[in-house]
Specification:
Serine Protease, Human Cytomegalovirus Protease, Chain A; alpha+beta; peptidase activity; nine-stranded mixed beta sheet
Length: about 180
C-alpha cells in the first residue's frame, strides 16, 4: 500500500503560542473530506501504540517533504474528537521559523497527515471509511483536504465562510488526482 495524505484545516483549533509552540487536531473523526473519506474513531490507536513500543515518534514535516522536518510533536493522541497533536516548531531550523511566521500571518492554515491505510470499507454513498491507519507524519500544509477545519494564530478570528479558498483547494486536489491517475 502506498503512503496517503489526509489534509485538515481548522477554525482556531491549531494555534501558535509563544512563537514556536503549536497544538490542535490533525484529523477529525466522522468528518467527510473532499476525497470522500471518513476517519473512524480509533483508527490511529494501534499505530500510536506500535510507535510508542518501538520508541519512534510521528514526524513534523513541511508540506509532506521528508527532507524538511520543521519541528517535533511532543504529544500525538486520539481523543473523542480526533487526532490531537501538540509540538514545537524548531527555532534552529530556517523552515521552522518560516512556518511560524506564515501561520501567524495567516498564509498557512492547514495540517495534513501522512499515513498508510490498513483497514477500510466503502459505504453505500461511495465514501471510504478508514478503520485503521498507520500514521507516519503530520505536516503543516498550504491546502488541506478537510475544508471545514483551519489553522489560526492565537487571537486571530477566521471567517467561517471562506468559499474561494475552499474552491481553490478542491480544484488543486482534483488536478493532483488527475495527474496521479486516481
Amino acid at each position: 500500500m502506498d503512503l496517503e495524505h489526509k489534509f485538515c484545516r481548522f477554525d482556531a483549533e491549531v494555534t501558535v503560542v509563544e512563537g514556536m509552540k503549536i497544538e490542535g487536531y490533525a484529523s477529525l473523526f466522522g468528518k467527510i473530506d473532499q476525497g470522500g473519506d471518513v476517519v473512524a474513531r480509533g483508527a490511529y490507536a494501534r499505530s500510536l501504540k506500535r510507535l510508542t513500543e518501538d520508541g519512534r515518534v510521528v514526524k513534523m514535516l513541511w508540506q509532506h517533504d521528508p527532507a524538511q522536518p520543521i519541528g517535533v510533536w511532543d504529544v500525538v493522541r486520539e481523543d473523542e474528537r480526533g487526532l490531537y497533536v501538540k509540538g514545537r516548531l524548531l527555532n534552529s531550523v530556517a523552515k521552522g521559523r518560516e512556518a511560524a511566521a506564515l501561520i501567524e500571518a495567516g498564509a498557512i492554515d492547514g495540517l495534513s497527515i501522512g499515513y498508510r491505510t490498513l483497514k477500510s470499507t466503502k459505504n453505500d454513498r461511495g465514501q471510504r471509511l478508514l478503520a485503521e491507519l498507520e500514521l507516519w507524519e503530520v505536516s503543516l500544509v498550504t491546502f488541506p483536504m478537510l475544508s471545514s477545519a483551519r489553522v489560526a494564530s492565537k487571537g486571530d478570528e477566521l471567517s467561517a465562510d471562506d468559499s474561494a479558498l475552499r474552491e481553490l483547494a478542491e480544484s488543486l486536489e482534483g488536478l493532483r488526482r488527475n495527474l496521479a491517475g486516481v
